[in-house]
Amino acid sequence: MIGDNQPYVMDATDFTIPFHAYARRLPYVELEIRQDHLGSAEGVARIAEILAEALIVASALFHP
Questions:
Q1: Spatial contact of 36 and 44, defined as CB atoms under 8 Å apart
Q2: Which of 24, 23, 19, 27 is nearest to 59 (CA)?
Q3: Cβ neighbours, 10 Å, residue 19
Q4: Is the pLDDT of residue 6 over 80?
Q5: Which of 24, 25, 27, 22 minimizes the C-alpha distance to 11?
Q6: Is the link from the previous residue into 7 a cis peptide, with omega within 30 of 0?
Q7: What is the pTM of this model?
C-alpha cells in the first residue's frame, strides 16, 4: 500500500527534505518501511525487489 503516512506531516520539525530538496527545488521521496517486513531474509529480499523496481521506474521518469 502506498499513501500518506499519518499522523506525519511536513512541518517546521523536519530538516532533511526542506534543507536538501525544497531549497534546491529537487524532486524527493521519503520512504518508511514497516520493520515487520524486514524480519527474515525473504522479507528483506522482497522489499529490496520492490524498491529496485520502483527506483528503475522513477529513474526512467526523470532520465528518459
A1: no
A2: 27
A3: 10
A4: no
A5: 22
A6: yes
A7: 0.63
Structural domain spans, the chain: 16-62
Handedness of CA 63, 31, 13, 4 (dihedral sign): positive
Evaluate whether 43 touches 37 at the Cβ level (below 8 Å): yes
42-56: pLDDT as tens digits: 999 999 999 999 999
5-16 burial, b at 16+ Cβ within 10 Å, e below that, comes to eeeeeeeeeeee
For the chain, what is the HEC assignment?
Answer: CCCCCCCCCCCCCCCHHHHHHHCCCCCCCCCCCCHHHHCCHHHHHHHHHHHHHHHHHHHHHHCC
